[in-house]
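Aggregate trends can hide what the representation actually does to any particular protein. For completeness, the protein is quoted in full, as a sequence line and a line of structure tokens.
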Amino acid sequence: MSAGFTHGDLAYVLRFGEDEPEIGQFRFTDDGGYWAFFVDEVIDFPEDVTVLRRATVLPE
């Protein structure tokens, strides 16, 4: 579920078939969007992840 997320938002997500959550970045496109990850170039579509909670970036 990616409702309410905008381009660049971060969240802890559980990818389909994985046991450990990762931080993903939502990237908006004309087709709806996808989740990108920092550890690889693989992307997941919103229906392939479970959002556990939003990640909050604190200023330095």
